[in-house]
Amino acid sequence: xxxxxxxxxxxxxxxxxxxxxxxxxxxxxxxxxxxxxxxxxxxxxxxxxxxxxxxxxxxxxxxxxxxxxxxxxxxxxxxxxxxxxxxxxxxxxxxxxxxxxxxxxxxxxxxxxxxxxxxxxxxxxxxxxxxxxxxxxxxxxxxxxxxxxxxxxxxxxxxxxxxxxxxxxxxxxxxxxxxxxxxxxxxxxxxxxxxxxxxxxxxxxxxxxxxxxxxxxxxxxxxxxxxxxxxxxxxxxxxxxxxxxxxxxxxxxxxxxxxxxxxxxxxxxxxxxxxxxxxxxxxxxxxxxxxxxxxxxxxxxxxxxxxxxxxxxxxxxxxxxxxxxxxxxxxxxxxxxxxxxxxxxxxxxxxxxxxxxxxxxxxxxxxxxxxxxxxxxxxxxxxxxxxxxxxxxxxxxxxxxxxxxxxxxxxxxxxxxxxxxxxxxxxxxxxxxxxxxxxxxxxxxxxxxxxxxxxxxxxxxxxxxxxxxxxxxxxxxxxxxxxxxxxxxxxxxxxxxxxxxxxxxxxxxxxxxxxxxxxxxxxxxxxxxxxxxxxxxxxxxxxxxxxxxxxxxxxxxxxxxxxxxxxxxxxxxxxxxxxxxxxxxxxxxxxxxxxxxxxxxxxxxxxxxxxxxxxxxxxxxxxxxxxxxxxxxxxxxxxxxxxxxxxxxxxxxxxxxxxxxxxxxxxxxxxxxxxxxxxxxxxxxxxxxxxxxxxxxxxxxxxxxxxxxxxxxxxxxxxxxxxxxxxxxxxxxxxxxxxxxxxxxxxxxxxxxxxxxxxxxxxxxxxxxxxxxxxxxxxxxxxxxxxxxxxxxxxxxxxxxxxxxxxxxxxxxxxxxxxxxxxxxxxxxxxxxxxxxxxxxxxxxxxxxxxxxxxxxxxxxxxxxxxxxxxxxxxxxxxxx
Length: 881
Ligand SMILES: *[C@@H]1O[C@H](CO)[C@@H](O)[C@H](O)[C@H]1NC(C)=O
Ligand SMILES: *[C@@H]1O[C@H](CO)[C@@H](O)[C@H](O)[C@H]1NC(C)=O
Ligand SMILES: *[C@@H]1O[C@H](CO)[C@@H](O)[C@H](O)[C@H]1NC(C)=O
Ligand SMILES: *[C@H]1O[C@H](CO)[C@@H](O)[C@H](O)[C@H]1NC(C)=O
What we know:
alpha+beta; Immunoglobulin-like; TIM Barrel; 9-stranded parallel sheet; 7-stranded antiparallel sheet; 17 helices; 19% helix; binds 2-acetamido-2-deoxy-beta-D-glucopyranose
């Protein structure tokens, strides 16, 4: 305990302290004595309803659901048999539970939930100054599944703590300033009972504000709604729908506190779970397996929270350069010749394109590692032609391997069976489901042996079609059946006492049986990790095959996915509201450590129209991952099929993206090396550029914005998101904002918006997307061309937006764009640009070049030999009049 004046001094546990906590109940201020709690409590076996007055006194926002079972119509008897409060709602407000825990919930007796665990162990690690790691586990935790996370190298390190946090029994404060009253409470898990049973674990906490982000993958606004919002997590193949579990699972949130500080919370758990947000504001984590293993990240800046999170789960991989180019795809080109025609017409119209893709129609009878020898006869030649034009080829692969081909004719299945790589059912037989090729077996990517088999398959196919990257789809894993051809056994793994609010109501809905067996554990525990394991196998196979940075885009994802793949937001519709929602999706995945993310430009299903597709192409030019993709029955929607004016607008947008490639590449470097975001929300930006640390967001008007976003710190993107518009309103946080195009044209006209934080109406004709440069930025650009390979050979051009005092700064990361680990092996250039105190013209006063391996013989500036210093791998060119 550390006493400061008369400040409250909550108990602080030393790093690594263990406390034997009594069963389930961690109520403050003093936890019940061990003995009374561990003895069977006679009275709690008897239903005894809490007093009505006490129940009614609980404010509605603070009612924690005592009967969360999906679809249950709760009667007074059912509720009171759990010793809970029963107060039917009259206010008509949606979502307020009728059955909730009384204020002093005395003990725990849930008759339907079995498997009580009598002793819990609480471990608290202060792993770094800014990271707490808390584990609540049963004494015999070996029966439970623990997720192996590769990047947890820092786990359990003992560090010197200079910024301690106070920790009571699950009450966490931030000591935010020197004065003692500024304790900010940001976690209080005593607001509702804690449960720890074999298949039911629940932890609730108050939240410091309603500003909560992350918690993917869900279709929602960027800032989650806390009005009784249940976000269920369990990987699921379904076109993104609100209030539904989707392809990926990311039990991590970032929350803002009063005054703009931020913290993060990560529950390391892969089991099906509900995350309930309620207006108190408060959150409830309800999962059906594993342990309660969570991390709290203290920020205090939002960007620092993401960095701290990525230190635990792993930072994203550095993408190969062409990943940042424009990608074209559709389901239903029908032939390789038709695919080729699109590529040719893009070239003829001078529209940038780096990568051509194919969806499942390239396959022979939808079989992985084959191509249709009739309709896709020219596929190998197409790929050669792409390579000859510095373009790349990516095709789809699904995990399901056909199990019904004649023996000896389909190596992937025969060999997979021989090596035992497929997921087994509960009886140990190969589990058979159904996907595109018909009946299929599912590779078990939790097994290293499967990775070798997957690699060999790719190697065999590569000899026929020398692809450059892979798109892994259907990896929730998706199944057209529920469970398997033989259904699933009936047991408490398939039908747990409590099933979170998963779509379809059953864990096996449109996937394999929860009781299926994988090398590492049962599918019950591994389901939501399937996409992560497949991405890992795929990235490592590509690295072995090509010796370059692997390009993988995955539909399903889990924390640490960014180390292996990017992500697209799934099967969108060609509608304006889907385009709007894509920005929230992109911002969320940047917070979740998957910055290489984009939605299907112009929309996947349904028919797009020209105006929508132009606007979407403009926005999509600023997706970190930029791909136009279309469904089987829709009209073509690649840029080449539109009217000359629409085509020109799309071409302009893409050339703009290509000209900004040096900036984008540098941002990805910072994501990889330092855990930064690439696309980021406006609140990432502190109000005052020069305020002393911590630079926390201080403009609450930015907290909910998800119709605009930033690239890095300096480039503000304000897309048009409505039909028929020729103007758009955008929010401009305080400061000076320069019109990007005016800066580019070196226009002498007034080009700067000086905002105090307000909405501004901008002109937005159909051929323009509004871009603004924040004061103080220097961004490197390049003359664009039709592929990044060609453009990246062009000289750089710096665009500078000065502060009032005439200063600005920017940077560039540059390497060969494709070799592995250039940063780690010091095979790169890092250039820092700064401008200071300019009067009427711009002078680059000095330049520093980091990572220069040896002292250069000569350095030139504008063709003239310049003085320089060289020290610690850094070349510095001082001011030179
Ligand atoms: C935590 O929540 C409990 C229950 O609402 C409340 O009684 C307690 O005062 C809170 N603790 C703090 C430190 O605010
Ligand atoms: C594709 O084009 C090639 C070359 O023109 C031609 O030989 C081949 O028959 C075409 N394939 C299909 C399926 O039309
Ligand atoms: C690409 O580069 C070539 C050769 O320098 C040039 O002729 C062409 O105009 C450039 N294309 C674009 C779109 O700038
Ligand atoms: C497109 O938009 C939403 C918004 O992010 C995104 O979450 C989703 O993945 C995409 N698909 C659909 C059908 O909305």
